[in-house]
Amino acid sequence: MDKHLEQLKEGYLEIPIPPEYDAMVERTLKRKNKRLHFQQWAIGLAAAASLFVTTVNVSPQAARAISEVPVIGELVKVVTFTEFKKSNQGTNIDLKTPHVSGLGDGTLQDSLNQKYLAENKKLYQDFEKETKGYQNGHLSVESGYEVKTNNDQILSIGRYKVTTEASAAEEMTYDTVDKKNHVLLTLPSLFKDERYIDVISENIKEQMKKQMKEDSNKIYWIGKEDMDPFKKIQPEQSFYINSKGKLVISFNEYDVAPGYMGMVEFTIPTSALKDILVSDVYIH
């Protein structure tokens, strides 16, 4: 394990586990342990999978036949590891934690799963601190996830958090993984140099102007009269790669537009990026 992952692991282990959350995880694991008697069956399934892969690799006819089957099942799965709910005197919390399996790289897979569990632990702890002593408070925290892409090359997972007090605020963060090479992709890693910041930013501004021209209900903060107009994306701006191999840039609620617009995202045309991409493996 490299130094970065070791630090991530240490940071995760230092987070105290709330008693309710810890008990819930333990119950979930016990339910999973009941399936251990299927171990021999799993070994047989692995052998069958090996035979399946060999057959497809050596037989073009078999490969074509298999490709026509609508759903075979993806090797990489994302499921809800556990869900925690609590409601009391006008406050409530509902946390869904994703769990990745079948990634083929134990270190990367474990670091993702540890991070997702740690994120929800912190949400729980913050919620407990903020609602301590509430009599008739109004605070709601919800977290969950969306699998944006899960194909042969890319896994993109979005985790959302919605906090509602006087009003609602929604945030989304993404992880995009190269499933073949077991690499967690970053936005800078996709491009030759920092030109991508300006190229993407200008394209987004053009899309914003076009949308506002076509729909009077859409408003983006890009004018000189705006208090904090959008100028450039962050170097590590939130993003994912969709199933068509297109780069999608995401903004949280209130980042670039009024709250009623919610979270907004922009699909960047590959034609605008082709000269600055490191390769066309991911974005094409």
Quick take:
This protein is α+β, with helices and mostly antiparallel strands and about 280 residues long. The protein contains 6 helices and 9 strands, in the order H-H-H-H-E-E-H-E-E-E-E-H-E-E-E. The longest helix is centred in the middle third of the chain and has 26 residues, at about 105-130.
Number-wise, the strands total 9
Low-confidence stretches: 28-73
Summed over residues and divided by their number, the pLDDT gives a mean of 81
Report on the biggest sheet. Answer: 6 strands, mixed
What is the terminal separation in angstroms?
A: 32 Å
- Largest beta sheet: strand ordering: 1-2-3-4-5-6
Helix/strand class = alpha+beta
Helicity level: 25-40%
- What pattern of helices and strands is seen along the backbone? HHHHEEHEEEEHEEE
How many helix segments? 6
The Rg value, from CA coordinates, equals 22 Å
Strand content: 25-35%
Give structural notes.
The protein has 284 residues and is an alpha+beta fold. The protein has helices at residues 3-13, 19-33, 39-58, 60-67, 106-131, 195-214; strands at 77-88, 91-101, 139-150, 154-164, 168-178, 183-185, 239-241, 247-251, 264-268. Mean pLDDT is 81; it is low at 28-73.
